[in-house]
Design brief:
This protein has about 160 residues and is mainly alpha-helical. It contains six helices and no strands. The longest helix has 29 residues. This is EF-hand domain-containing protein.
Length: about 160
Amino acid sequence: MWRYLVGGLAALALAAAGMLVFNRNARSVAALPLAPVGQGQATGAAAALPDTVPEASDRTREQKRFDRYDKDRDGKVTREEYLAARRKAFAKLDVNHDGLLAFDEWAVKAEGKFAAADGDKSGAMTPVEFARTAVKRKPPRVRRDCPPAAKDDAPANAEES
């Protein structure tokens, strides 16, 4: 008999824990304060919200990349505009500024990366050391659909004076 009683209490405790876990997100959103209306804004017609919401541009990544190259904004990328970025990169690599890129100048970044990864300075990388040379990718940008909350200028505890 006591086994049924303990089993029933355990089931109730499990159900209560589940309710707490699943309702935690809903409770935190419901507890957010509402934004004050009209605070710091003009009253009347000037305080009315616009009828339409501005939307983000539909330009693709490729259109943005094209615009970065098209310096004179004529809708065409000339040879000079296209090669300008390459010239800057070449100038950074050409350490002795002789207009020629030697292998050692070109490989400077790779050599530095190898030296930094080779922790035991053995001249060879172990699999763990090699893993340190992997390109660090940026995490994807989180798109926020709602505007940030307005900061309240009132003190946190109005009773203290």
